[in-house]
């Protein structure tokens, strides 16, 4: 016998769950928080998404999917120059946290903090590590392509990739400290200029 069809939008509810984890982290989020944010009962949440760890895992997946569609997509474009792609990537990332009432910082970064405290379940710990590794690979691969297209050796791709990852993480984290969007965009422009110099200004700006 089939159960009753769900009368709520699972994607919309997952978005609300993600926002709670993003604001409070895994440790700081309680089931009562999730019940309040979604308007669903605990049994309904468990039936739809599993336990708290499963909800967190689904939230991480949703977060990465959203970032891939809005920010990371610029690092995979081949119709614009490298420095322009970096500028668009960083500005798109900042735009996703610019709403004054929205969550700030980076969900994966807060997850890494929870992981350092030993608070994440093993499966979610492995997922966070894999996400960080994938981000690093994306940055390095981007610079390898940029350097190759400029006829330069790719020996600096690793350092440039690590620099961009550090910059991206730092910018998003600074949104939690009350730094204005205008000031952060100034940092973006300064950093893009530094990267352009490292690439010998060979790419379109």
TrEMBL record:
Any one GO MF annotation of this record: DNA binding
Domain of life: Bacteria
Leader sequence residues: none
Gene3D superfamilies in UniProt: Homeodomain-like, Tetracycline Repressor, domain 2
Transmembrane segments: none
Key words of the record: DNA-binding, Transcription, Transcription regulation
Pfam family, one: TetR_N
Residue ranges constituting the HTH tetR-type domain according to the UniProt record: 7-67
DNA-binding region: 30-49
Descriptive protein name: TetR family transcriptional regulator
